[in-house]
Description:
By secondary structure, the protein is mainly alpha-helical. The protein has 3 helices and no strands. The model has no long low-confidence stretch (mean pLDDT 80).
Amino acid sequence: MSSTTLKPKSKVPGRVLGARTFAAITAVEGLRLGTASRKRLQTLKASGLTPAERREEVLRAYMDLNKRK
Protein backbone atom coordinates (compact mmCIF):
# COMPACT_ATOMS: atom_id res chain seq x y z
CA MET A 1 0.00 0.00 0.00
CA SER A 2 1.20 3.45 -0.75
CA SER A 3 0.70 6.29 1.66
CA THR A 4 -1.00 9.44 0.50
CA THR A 5 -0.66 12.92 1.86
CA LEU A 6 -3.49 15.36 1.96
CA LYS A 7 -2.86 18.68 0.28
CA PRO A 8 -4.64 21.92 1.06
CA LYS A 9 -7.57 22.67 -1.24
CA SER A 10 -6.53 26.27 -1.69
CA LYS A 11 -3.15 27.66 -2.62
CA VAL A 12 -3.93 30.93 -0.87
CA PRO A 13 -2.04 31.09 2.44
CA GLY A 14 -4.02 31.74 5.61
CA ARG A 15 -3.50 34.81 7.74
CA VAL A 16 -2.73 34.97 11.42
CA LEU A 17 -3.88 38.07 13.26
CA GLY A 18 -1.73 39.55 15.99
CA ALA A 19 -3.18 40.44 19.36
CA ARG A 20 -3.35 44.18 18.61
CA THR A 21 -5.02 43.65 15.24
CA PHE A 22 -7.54 41.26 16.76
CA ALA A 23 -8.25 43.70 19.60
CA ALA A 24 -8.82 46.54 17.11
CA ILE A 25 -11.25 44.45 15.04
CA THR A 26 -13.22 43.31 18.08
CA ALA A 27 -13.37 46.88 19.44
CA VAL A 28 -14.92 48.07 16.19
CA GLU A 29 -17.43 45.22 16.39
CA GLY A 30 -18.24 46.10 19.99
CA LEU A 31 -17.00 42.82 21.47
CA ARG A 32 -15.37 42.75 24.91
CA LEU A 33 -13.63 40.02 26.89
CA GLY A 34 -15.11 39.08 30.20
CA THR A 35 -13.02 39.17 33.36
CA ALA A 36 -12.58 35.39 33.49
CA SER A 37 -11.55 35.23 29.83
CA ARG A 38 -9.06 38.07 30.24
CA LYS A 39 -7.46 36.37 33.26
CA ARG A 40 -7.35 33.01 31.46
CA LEU A 41 -5.59 34.56 28.45
CA GLN A 42 -3.04 36.34 30.66
CA THR A 43 -2.30 33.05 32.41
CA LEU A 44 -1.93 31.21 29.11
CA LYS A 45 0.45 33.85 27.72
CA ALA A 46 2.65 33.57 30.81
CA SER A 47 2.60 29.76 30.91
CA GLY A 48 4.94 29.17 27.96
CA LEU A 49 2.61 26.76 26.20
CA THR A 50 2.77 26.22 22.46
CA PRO A 51 0.04 27.85 20.35
CA ALA A 52 -1.63 24.44 19.91
CA GLU A 53 -1.62 23.83 23.67
CA ARG A 54 -3.06 27.31 24.33
CA ARG A 55 -5.81 26.64 21.81
CA GLU A 56 -6.62 23.34 23.55
CA GLU A 57 -6.84 25.09 26.92
CA VAL A 58 -9.23 27.75 25.59
CA LEU A 59 -11.41 25.11 23.94
CA ARG A 60 -11.41 23.05 27.14
CA ALA A 61 -12.53 26.09 29.14
CA TYR A 62 -15.48 26.69 26.85
CA MET A 63 -16.39 23.00 26.65
CA ASP A 64 -16.50 22.93 30.46
CA LEU A 65 -18.87 25.92 30.44
CA ASN A 66 -21.24 24.09 28.11
CA LYS A 67 -21.30 21.06 30.42
CA ARG A 68 -22.26 23.22 33.42
CA LYS A 69 -25.45 24.53 31.85
